[in-house]
Amino acid sequence: MSTATSSPARPGSAGPDRAPASPSLAQAAGLVAGREIRARLRSKAFLISTGILLLLVLGGIIASNLIGANAGPTKVAAVGQAQQLLDGQKGLAVTDAADRAAAEKLVRSGEVDAAIVPDDTSPTKLTIVANDEAPGSLVQQLSVTPKVTLLDPDAKDGNLRYLVALAFGIVFFSAAMTFGQTIAQSVVEEKSTRVIEILVAAVPARALMAGKVLGSSVLAFGQIALIAAAGVVGLTVTGQTEILQLLGAPLVWFVVFFIFGFVLLASLFAATGAMVSRQEDIGSTTTPVTMLVMLPYFAIVFFNSNALVVSVMSYVPFSAAIGMPLRLFLGDAQWWEPLIALVVLIASTLVVLAIGSRIYENSLLKLGARVEWKDALRK
Amino acid sequence: MLEVRGLQKRYGARAVLDDVGFDVVEGRMTGFVGGNGAGKTTTMRIILGVLDADAGTVALDGALLGGGDRRRFGYMPEERGLYPKMKLTEQLVYLARLHGFDAAGAKRNADELIDQLGLGERRDDEIEKLSLGNQQRAQIAAALVHRPEVLILDEPFSGLDPIAVDTVVGVLKDRALAGVPVLFSSHQLDIVERLCDDLVIIAGGTIRASGSTASLREQHSGLRYELLGSADAGWLREQPGIHVAEFDAGFAVFDADSEAAVQAVLREAVSRGDVLTFARQQRSLAQIFTEVIQ
């Protein structure tokens, strides 16, 4: 504008008349991300669901600690030479009994869980006397078992394998789904309220999308970090530190894979969300993305004992965040494997960002009917 | 000056805009009037770069507009929208910051506009909790908060009561006086008539008339006069070059073929008795509009 804009001065107006220079792409993205974060932090649904997740994690840790504590030592009454046999056995609180009748009396009264009496007819020279059921651990302890030699003593047992797969899976899956849907909704909100026309006139569409993905990612990481911190503190306070040591390195890798995997999914959700104009229609375009999140998740949960499936999954970008940490935890992966998987993930994230922002820019201002894929992908 | 030239836009086989061109001069309020579907919103969206034209240009002070230049525009879209859950002040500050203002400057602009538009008591309310009229004012504030150098407002007065219209008009005139070209569309012709310096009339995707309100009025009013005298005005019918439109004893409305014929009528009237009124009739914008779009 020429001099006409700067004079005459408007009465009653403070500050400079002209707008300052436009913010840089990064500044604009930062502003958008900041708004996104504040809006989420103000949402009661988000705060409540975060609170519930935290309670679940802490509750689970405390419950597992209590159950472990309750199990305590098995109380047994021992008669005669059985006493010597029980010396040095772990997890038993031994009460001496004069004879079998006295021991049975203790069992009946419930003062002890079982009585152990000498019995020459038994292969172990002992008989366990219990009310209705002998404590399983006691039976196992006193049984004669063959000698076992493990060739791979570090391998984790099936239960733990399943639990860890499930834990990684659930955290990634739930974060991707909840935050992904939120991103899509917030994109559609801007379209359905037409705020988008004002925003696009102010900043490039790229900055808008970058800000959205960034804001949601920061929130997702924040939520995960909070939950992880609660878990670590809970486990430490209750003295269950062994699990922590086991999870160390895989957990770090999980975080790294999570960051990139999440950005990838977030941009897909933003792009597909931009293709519709009404909240009710979100499902029609985001479903393929939802499938991309769900399929590998179920595959890894159901096939976590199938080494081949897990290996493949640990390289597929959508499931690497679950698969690779699991393999590291199990000790199945070479040191270089997570690095390659990470490169694959980052490369696909960049490709997806490029495609996603094209869809986003092409669809953003098309109101009304769902944008066709061919129009959305057009250059 | 904002120069719009030769805009073409088709949706399939239907031409929405055909060779649309006009100027929006700084320091003046330009009204953009037309019926529903005439092409007002499409034109404004193209000016803002929210929509691409098939052909044609938009230039500001002789320089064609690129994407970045439009950041200095203030835009009020036809379909209103702000974030429903954001508070008014927060919303305005956010928009100002997206345009490059720092936090303090953005806050200052927002506060000033909120006061000017009479939204002071609502500054901490969420947008969705505002009445429709107040949402409309908030929308106007959103278009102005970054101190734009050009204002494009699509129906800024629809849904406002007369007092709110005056408030908004005051704020917009302020901006125009500061040298900002202001283009606004409306189909409330009485407001446009009261408010605009310049006028652009569009119908069926083509510009039917444009120019200053005064000159348009001049052009389209013709030589229509009204006469009120003490004598019966029946003699007018015999007067050469005069066509009587209305007649009632001493009162008559007539169209003249030439200025000379008008003067002849005046002389004749004076000679026949007292002349109480002799004046040229200005046609209302509504009349001109109806005539022009046919």
TrEMBL record, chain A:
<feature type="domain" description="ABC-2 type transporter transmembrane">
    <location>
        <begin position="44"/>
        <end position="356"/>
    </location>
</feature>
<dbReference type="Pfam" id="PF12698">
    <property type="entry name" value="ABC2_membrane_3"/>
</dbReference>
<protein>
    <submittedName>
        <fullName>ABC transporter permease</fullName>
    </submittedName>
</protein>
<feature type="transmembrane region" description="Helical">
    <location>
        <begin position="338"/>
        <end position="360"/>
    </location>
</feature>
<keyword id="KW-0472">Membrane</keyword>
<feature type="transmembrane region" description="Helical">
    <location>
        <begin position="45"/>
        <end position="67"/>
    </location>
</feature>
<feature type="transmembrane region" description="Helical">
    <location>
        <begin position="297"/>
        <end position="318"/>
    </location>
</feature>
<dbReference type="GO" id="GO:0140359">
    <property type="term" value="F:ABC-type transporter activity"/>
</dbReference>
<feature type="region of interest" description="Disordered">
    <location>
        <begin position="1"/>
        <end position="23"/>
    </location>
</feature>
<keyword id="KW-1133">Transmembrane helix</keyword>
<dbReference type="InterPro" id="IPR013525">
    <property type="entry name" value="ABC2_TM"/>
</dbReference>
<feature type="transmembrane region" description="Helical">
    <location>
        <begin position="251"/>
        <end position="276"/>
    </location>
</feature>
<keyword id="KW-0812">Transmembrane</keyword>
<feature type="transmembrane region" description="Helical">
    <location>
        <begin position="218"/>
        <end position="239"/>
    </location>
</feature>
<feature type="transmembrane region" description="Helical">
    <location>
        <begin position="162"/>
        <end position="184"/>
    </location>
</feature>
<dbReference type="GO" id="GO:0016020">
    <property type="term" value="C:membrane"/>
</dbReference>
UniProtKB/TrEMBL annotation, chain B:
<comment type="similarity">
    <text>Belongs to the ABC transporter superfamily.</text>
</comment>
<dbReference type="InterPro" id="IPR027417">
    <property type="entry name" value="P-loop_NTPase"/>
</dbReference>
<dbReference type="Pfam" id="PF00005">
    <property type="entry name" value="ABC_tran"/>
</dbReference>
<keyword id="KW-0547">Nucleotide-binding</keyword>
<dbReference type="GO" id="GO:0016887">
    <property type="term" value="F:ATP hydrolysis activity"/>
</dbReference>
<keyword id="KW-0067">ATP-binding</keyword>
<dbReference type="InterPro" id="IPR025302">
    <property type="entry name" value="DrrA1/2-like_C"/>
</dbReference>
<keyword id="KW-0813">Transport</keyword>
<dbReference type="Pfam" id="PF13732">
    <property type="entry name" value="DrrA1-3_C"/>
</dbReference>
<protein>
    <submittedName>
        <fullName>ABC transporter ATP-binding protein</fullName>
    </submittedName>
</protein>
<dbReference type="InterPro" id="IPR003439">
    <property type="entry name" value="ABC_transporter-like_ATP-bd"/>
</dbReference>
<feature type="domain" description="ABC transporter">
    <location>
        <begin position="2"/>
        <end position="229"/>
    </location>
</feature>
<dbReference type="GO" id="GO:0005524">
    <property type="term" value="F:ATP binding"/>
</dbReference>
<dbReference type="InterPro" id="IPR017871">
    <property type="entry name" value="ABC_transporter-like_CS"/>
</dbReference>
<dbReference type="InterPro" id="IPR003593">
    <property type="entry name" value="AAA+_ATPase"/>
</dbReference>
